[in-house]
Specification:
The structure holds two protein chains of two kinds. Chain A has four domains: 222 residues, no CATH class; 165 residues, no CATH class; 213 residues, no CATH class; 183 residues, no CATH class. Chain A contains 24 helices and 22 strands. In chain A, strands 2-3-9-6-8-7 form a six-stranded mixed beta barrel. A six-stranded mixed beta barrel of chain A has the order 13-15-20-17-19-18. In chain A, a hairpin with a 2-residue loop joins strand 7 and strand 8. Chain A is elongated and about 105 Å long. By secondary structure, chain B is of the alpha/beta class. In chain B, 35% of the residues lie in helices and 29% in strands. In chain B, helix 3 packs across helix 4 and helix 3 runs parallel beside helix 5. The longest helix of chain B is centred in the C-terminal third of the chain and has 18 residues. Classes of the chains: A alpha+beta, B alpha/beta. At the A-B interface, helix 1, helix 8 and helix 9 of A face helix 1, helix 2 and helix 3 of B.
């Protein structure tokens, strides 16, 4: 064995330069590029998400309540070595220069924030601090407030009963998106000034937060000790925040995983073809070596050493490309990732090596066995063909090894089983279709064109070889078509989220008597035709669970809820359980957002006890809705049936699209000063940037899969080039014209291309339907453009690559060709 | 009397064919002494090459035994037989069977590299000089004529200084002139190295140059 290993090292460079290992090398490098780029990316994104999650919270753990939390939790945490901070947030008018602006007031302690950056600068731009709270009697404001109210350094701003000195501008602060207040520009004051402002009264809408930071162990210990806290106090750990990191990022990550999985499968296909060609070309050598005394172990050792060296080199190349690609992806995803990414870990490197060794030794093991056990008598029989069908069991073992590896790497048993099922189904379908078509071709007689006749005959007489080629062409095309469809639909569904007319402004507090005036004003001034939704300020008090007579206030939303009533289900909502009410029903019913329903453990038939407009009432839960919050239309956790909704006092809300740089809103607010406007243009821009970033990243990874697919097609075309060259040379030698040889090759590749592409298109449609519904959870309708283009380009590629592969033979002396093959 | 180097006892070889079991070699007995020059002749399909393969341990008989260099090779496994071949047996084939991607030198070095020789390169060069190919050392098989290819094959067969050399139709793919040159080379190298030579041939002129001629017909020795 050792001698074999040494021999393998000696001959390695020679094997690499001779070209037989090149396709295998490229296949492995591509598989490693795919897995490592996604691995590097995922690894860094995961680390980044953890950091970002802490930044979103401003801490590792927060406790949040609508009423004061008291000092107990902070004291307990301090005794356990945790860092602590406190914030209190509410809405109030900020008044200056006889003007005012509804603002989010945030009172903080000196230690705020525990995570993330608070950046404050003077109006001149000079940095003041990156932590804490302003001194008592002073405050910091966001630029939007200073611009709207025309504020100056050391000027005055009144909040409630207190007049503050303006110390600086807030450039950045964490925990911005903590609920409804996040829409309003922020003022930060010292917590000691809270009472002096005199704003917080009984019933005021206030969010009290305690912030904690420390090691994971200390945080968990602390949480264990406070697990009996009242239900109205909600705890949130940084780990929980990652789930909300954005749908585009999540689905692009799903696509990356799917693409890298497909790239590996396609690479496995091309590796199998390449290994088979390598083994066939080495059968003479190994048989000869046997004749000259090489043992089975010697052959095994030398082959394994050569493959190992090739795998190491290909893996290193793949890791290099993977890292580069990952950098491109990170660059593309800058719109989504807002924090600096930590450096990647070693995990993708290990994963890259595991992938390449599994792929190579998974697909090569049958051939290594064949080579090491080759009989020296082959030399005397001139028999250097590998009969692969006899080794079904070894292939089965190799396939099982591969799929166990895929399950371990992708940790998604369901997906892998779908893919395995699809692969088996596709292979069987391609085999049956291929066999049937070849059988049909044997009866097909052309009346003229000897070249075309020969080509068709070649497909028939190659029999299983032709079927194998149809399967390989077909499988590679299927996976590429499915990825192309997935990519296009994913990007389309993201883009659909934000149409041209997506609203960028909300108008609140519109009273019944103003509806006609508002409509008329917007119609006349901006050709906007708003639709108004009733807005009822209410509070969910408790739940009467189905089958119970007592009221339960555990696990319910602790704060006021905005309610509405509707006769018809809004466009951006979908009933996922239960039924929408019939027209004219008299009962008080409520439809609940499914995520809220889950968090409150609601079932259909539960009765919710609300308080709104001085009235307390029950409403029976009759449906759960999936709400498309990204639609930027007014959406609600709770929608009441008209019979109860109509009886409650309400104002109205609407969302409208205002062109950028238009003065419509400024004029509107002057005309209707009691109506509140929230501009969400910057949020829309953020979402648009996220979508274009994710789309670009998806393109990059698709190109990688495409490269793997093309390589697999090339590998399968070259798999029996030697035989074709020999046949072409013999035909040439016995007098066939070049045009006849060309026609024979052209018709063979054309028919193979059509058969493969046709079966691939049919199979891809079925596989896409499964992946869309089961993995991506979006509806599927076949993309005829992609399928049509895929069919044509598949046929053209196989045809042209096939012709090119034997072109040289057609124009070379047959003697030279026969000497070489 | 010289020692026996090869003894074949009651060898029969049957293979399965679509028409049923086919007997290729039937009940063959022969023995060859050290240093003897032996030829096997017979028409195509008479079983010459199959018998040669069995005698050299490249294939196993259905019945009977072969003792080569004192070892009953028909009872050994493939690796043990390979060990004997690597040490004491040389081969020359009708189709040359040179490795197309290896140079003449690398082809000749192959058996030495398998046996782990430290002087593979120098010995291989020496062997190529012996067969008159000192100017073709770095040439690849596609750059050599048929006669030159067979010279490389002879150099490769002799480089290990085998005790017995098996040659299967060594001139079968060559023209008359090249055949004659190769025949002379084969015999002169054999004489120099005192090797036993067993060759299969159609060429009666070549066969008659041997000390002993065995004739096969329909798998039986006449």
């Amino acid at each position: 064995m050792i001698r074999g290993l040494v021999y393998g090292i000696k001959k390695f460079w020679f094997e690499v330069t001779s070209g037989d290992l090149l396709i295998l090398f490229l296949s492995i490098a591509l598989a490693v590029t795919a897995i490592s780029s996604v691995g590097f990316l995922g690894d860094r994104l995961q680390s980044s998400m953890k950091e970002q999650a802490s930044v979103i919270l401003g801490a590792d753990l927060t406790l949040r309540s609508a009423s004061t939390l008291g000092p107990d939790y902070l004291s307990l945490a301090n005794t356990q070595g945790l860092e602590t901070a406190e914030t209190v947030s509410f809405l109030s008018m900020a008044i200056a220069n006889e003007d005012n602006l509804l603002s989010s007031i945030k009172a903080t302690t000196q230690s705020y924030p525990l995570k993330g950056n608070l950046v404050i600068s003077k109006f001149s731009g000079e940095l003041i601090t990156q932590k804490g709270s302003p001194p008592s009697g002073h405050l910091w404001v966001e630029e939007k407030i200073s611009e709207a109210l025309d504020l100056k350094q050391n000027g005055e701003l009144i909040v409630g009963n207190k007049t503050f000195v303006i110390d600086g501008i807030i450039k950045d602060f964490p925990d911005r998106n903590s609920g409804f207040f996040g829409f309003y520009p922020t003022v930060i004051v010292n917590l000691d000034d809270l009472d002096a402002m005199g704003i917080i009264q009984t019933g005021s809408r206030v969010v009290y937060r305690n912030l904690f930071s420390g090691t994971k162990k200390d945080i968990n210990n602390f949480l264990a000790q406070i697990q009996d806290m009242p239900s109205e106090i909600r705890s949130q750990k940084s780990e929980d925040v990652g789930e909300d990191m954005g749908e585009a990022l999540e689905s692009s990550t799903t696509f990356f995983n799917l693409a890298s999985l497909f790239t590996i499968i396609i690479s496995v296909i091309s590796s199998m073809v390449a290994v088979r060609r390598y083994a066939e070309r080495n059968l003479l050598q190994t048989s000869l070596m046997k004749v000259f005394g090489a043992s089975k172990k010697f052959i095994l050792g030398s082959q394994m050493m050569q493959l190992t060296l090739m795998v190491v080199l290909a893996t290193l190349a793949g890791l290099g490309f993977g890292y580069l690609l990952q950098s491109l992806l990170i660059g593309a995803l800058q719109g989504i990732i807002t924090t600096d990414l930590p450096p990647p870990s070693l995990t993708p490197v290990i994963l890259g090596f595991v992938t390449s060794f599994c792929v190579v030794f998974g697909v090569a093991s049958p051939y290594l066995k064949i080579l090491s056990e080759s009989q020296p008598i082959r030399i005397l029989r001139n028999d250097f063909n590998i009969g692969v069908t006899r080794n079904a069991m070894i292939y089965l073992v190799a396939a099982i090894t591969m799929f166990v590896f895929l399950i371990i790497v992708f940790k998604n048993i369901e997906l892998i089983f779908y893919i395995v099922g699809a692969l088996i189904g596709l292979t069987a379908a391609l085999f049956i279709i291929g066999k049937a078509l070849i059988y049909f071709l044997s009866f097909f007689k052309l009346s003229s064109g000897i070249g075309w006749k020969l080509g068709l005959k070649n497909i028939v007489h190659r029999g299983n070889e032709s079927i194998l080629q149809i399967i390989i062409f077909g499988l590679s095309l299927v996976f590429l078509l499915v990825l192309a469809e997935t990519r296009t639909d994913l990007v389309d569904s993201w883009t659909d989220t934000l149409q041209e007319d997506t609203p960028n402004n909300f108008l609140f507090n519109i009273q019944e008597y103003d509806l006609a005036n508002v409509s008329e004003y917007l119609n006349t001034k901006a050709k906007i035709f708003p639709t108004f939704t009733p807005l009822i300020r209410g509070r969910l008090l408790s739940v009467k669970r189905l089958g119970s007579e007592s009221l339960d206030s555990e696990n319910i939303m602790e704060r006021e809820a905005n309610l509405t009533w509707k006769e018809e289900l809004p466009e951006s909502n979908e009933i996922i359980k239960g039924f929408w009410w019939k027209e004219g029903i008299a009962e008080a019913e409520v439809s609940v957002d499914d995520r809220v329903a889950k968090s409150m453990n609601l079932v259909l038939g539960d009765e919710l006890y609300f308080s709104a407009g001085g009235t307390n009432f029950y409403a029976t839960v009759t449906s759960f809705r999936e709400v498309e919050w990204e639609s930027f239309s007014p959406n609600f956790f709770f929608i009441l049936s008209p019979s109860i909704g109509r009886t409650l006092p309400n104002s109205y809300i609407t969302s409208i699209k205002i062109p950028e740089n238009s003065s419509t809103i400024k004029d509107f607010i002057e005309r209707f000063p009691t109506i509140t406007n929230i501009d969400i243009g910057s949020v829309i821009k953020q979402v648009q940037s996220t979508i274009s970033s994710a789309s670009l990243a998806v393109q990059y990874i698709f190109v990688l899969a495409l490269a793997a697919g093309i390589l697999a097609l090339i590998a399968s075309i070259f798999s029996n080039t030697d035989q074709r060259k020999k046949e072409a040379a013999i035909l040439h030698a016995i007098g066939a014209k070049r045009s006849v040889i060309f026609q024979a090759a052209a018709s063979e590749f054309l028919v193979l291309g059509i058969l493969s592409a046709l079966t691939a298109v049919i199979s891809a449609t079925l596989l896409s339907a499964i992946i869309f519904s089961q993995v991506l959870e979006i509806s599927y309708s076949p993309n005829l453009n992609i399928l049509g283009f895929g069919f044509l380009s598949g046929v053209m590629f196989i045809f042209l690559a096939g012709i090119i592969s034997i072109r040289k033979t057609i124009y070379t002396s047959p003697m030279l060709t026969l000497r070489e093959v | 009397m010289k020692d026996l180097i090869l003894e074949v006892t009651n060898i029969t070889k049957e293979v399965n064919s679509p028409e049923g079991a086919l007997t290729i070699v039937q009940d063959v007995n022969l023995s060859i002494a050290e240093g003897e020059l032996v030829s096997l002749v017979g028409p195509s399909g008479s079983g010459k090459t199959t018998l040669l393969a069995i005698m050299a341990g490249l294939d196993l008989p259905s019945q009977g035994s072969v003792t080569l260099l004192g070892s009953e090779i028909t009872s050994l496994d493939e690796d043990k037989r390979a060990q004997i071949r690597g040490k004491d047996v040389g081969f020359v084939f009708q189709s040359f069977h040179l490795m197309p991607k290896l140079s003449a030198l690398d082809n000749v070095m192959l058996p030495l590299e398998i046996s782990g020789s430290d002087e593979a390169k120098s010995k291989a060069k020496e062997a190529l000089i012996k067969v008159g190919l000192e100017k073709r050392v770095q040439h690849f098989p596609t750059q050599l004529s048929g006669g030159e290819k067979q010279r490389v094959a002879i150099a490769r067969a002799m480089v290990n200084e085998p005790k017995i050399l098996f040659a299967d139709e060594p001139t079968g793919n060559l023209d008359k002139k090249s055949s004659s040159a190769i025949t002379d080379l084969l015999f002169s190298v054999n004489e120099q190295m005192q090797t036993t030579l067993v060759l299969v041939t159609h060429d009666l002129v070549l066969a008659e140059k041997c000390e002993k001629v065995y004739e096969l017909s329909e798998g039986r020795l006449l």
